[in-house]
Every structure is written in structure tokens, then in C-alpha cells.
Amino acid sequence: MAIAKAERLMNLALCLLGTRRPLSKRELRESIEAYLEAASDDSFNRMFERDKDDLRELGLVIETVENLDGEVGYLARRDSNRLPPITLDAEEAAALGLAAKVWQQARLAGAASGALQKLRAAGLPEDVDPYEAHGALEPRIPVHEAAFEPLMLACRDRRPVAFDYRKATAAHPEPRNVEPWALECWRGHWYLAGWDRDRGAERVFRLSRITGRVRTRSGRFTVEVPDVVTVRETVASWAGETADRSALIRLRTDAGYPLRAKATAVRELGDGWDELEIPYGHGLDAWLVEFGPDVVVLEPAELRADVVDRLRAVAKG
Fold first, then answer.
1. Which DSSP helix (H) or strand (E) runs through 210?
2. Which tens digit of pLDDT belongs to each residue from 219-272?
3. What are phi and psi of 201, to 5 degrees?
4. Angle formed by the axes of helices 90-102 and 109-121, to 10°?
């Protein structure tokens, strides 16, 4: 069975690499003997999807193209699957090994290990053990959100996605249609940057606020992906990290530790409340709303009004 699958994968790869135009599922089924022998259309579809995922896992870049009639086709362009010679010194190999360690406790562990094996085959020095270098460092990035893996694959394959998203100030999630650009971890949370088709603008989404299943969509991106996607800078701006003034708030004594970490001044008021002076920038009102009744904005007046408006919107549902 292993030999049969390897032969099937090889035949599929050759078909996708050898074509100058996208091939539909029907054409691929007619070209590969193992697919012709499938007992039913459902059996073929399952086999094809598994094979396609396996080839992508092995590093083959497979494009999904939709023609004018709405039919989806597949191809693997030779220029997209050709790499220059890889040469790594000991320090570069150590850096890659350290990066691979990040994912050892996540679902990407297998992909990280496989990537290092491919580098070995491509010429990574045999006397370099990328896992042993800097062994005292044990980096970890939490990946708990179910949306991470499908969004990571969508970013890699340049495929639009749809999902339901609940904003911090909303009681119910709303549907979003997004062209995903990049994922980034910032302050322990994962964020997605992309083009929101419904709003016609760049947006950043926190993965923990995505509800339900991430669904991929056919078709190409309608907007060019920027050379540099500034997820971290955008999130930092929305969180008030680029603040140029201060706000005064009251905070319950045993609550709001992220706010306390940002405070430039703290004064005990008694009766279970403290007074904090914190940096004030774009998006601070949305962040303060997340702390609910534990926070009261004292000044400036416009920040207090924005927080009150957001709380009223949540209350109305």
C-alpha cells in the first residue's frame, strides 16, 4: 500500500508540474490510473484531497485557480517549485534549529522536523546538530486557537477565507470575508492581518475572537499582498502602545494587571480602588471595555464618552 501511494503521489506531482494550464479534478482523475480505479466519486475526492495535502506538506507549491466558468483547477508551476542551492553555516543552522524548537509542542512539530530533514538532504553540514545548539534556550509560542492551522495554510496558499468574528465591543459575532496575509504572535495572542473584502480595507483580527470554523473560499486575491505586513505595529497602535498623551482611570485593587503593567503612576484610593495614569492612544477605549465593571474612566472626557458608548452597544446586544 505504501508503494502504491508513493506511486500515486509521484504521478499526481508529475501531472501538476507538467501542465501549462490548471487541470480540473475530472482531468486529473482521467490521467491517473489509481484515481480511475476509485470505487466512487466520494472515494476519489477524499483520496485526491489527501494526496494534495501530502504533496504540499512535502513542499510542492500547488496553485488553485478558478476559470471563468467557476471550475477549479490545479497546477504546480516549475518556477514556484525551484530553489537555489542551499548553503548554511553553523550559526544559521543553529538559528533554524532554535526556530524549530518553538513548534515542538504544537501541531507544527512534524512540519518543523520535516523541514530540518529536507535541509539535511539539501546540504546542511552533517557535523551540525541544530537541535543541540543553544540547548539552554527553550522557546515556546502558545498555539491554542483552532483557527490557527487553517489560517496558516490559507496564508501560505493565498486562499481567501470566511469566518465569524466577535469584536470586543459586540455581543454577537459577524461574518467576515478576508484575504489572509500573515499571522503574528504579540503579547501571548495570535493575530491575523489581511484584506477585509466587505469593508474594503486592511484589518487585523485576534484569533481568540474567531468563532466557529474557518472556511476557505475559491478564487484569487483581489488585492496585492504588501511586501511588509506590519501586524505587530498595527496591533500596538490599536492597543494604545503608540500613545502620545495620558488617561486617568479608576481600577479595582485586585483586577486589571495588564493595565497596571502599563501605568506610569498608581495611587491607592481605598475601598478596593486604585487610581492609575496610563498611556492614551488609538484603540484604548476598546481595550478598557474588556475589563467591564473593574474600570472607570475619569479623564479625558472623550475617552470616557467612547467607553460608555461601547458599553451601551454591548448592553443592547
1. strand 210-216
2. 889 988 887 777 767 666 655 556 678 899 999 998 888 888 888 999 999 889
3. -155, 160
4. 160
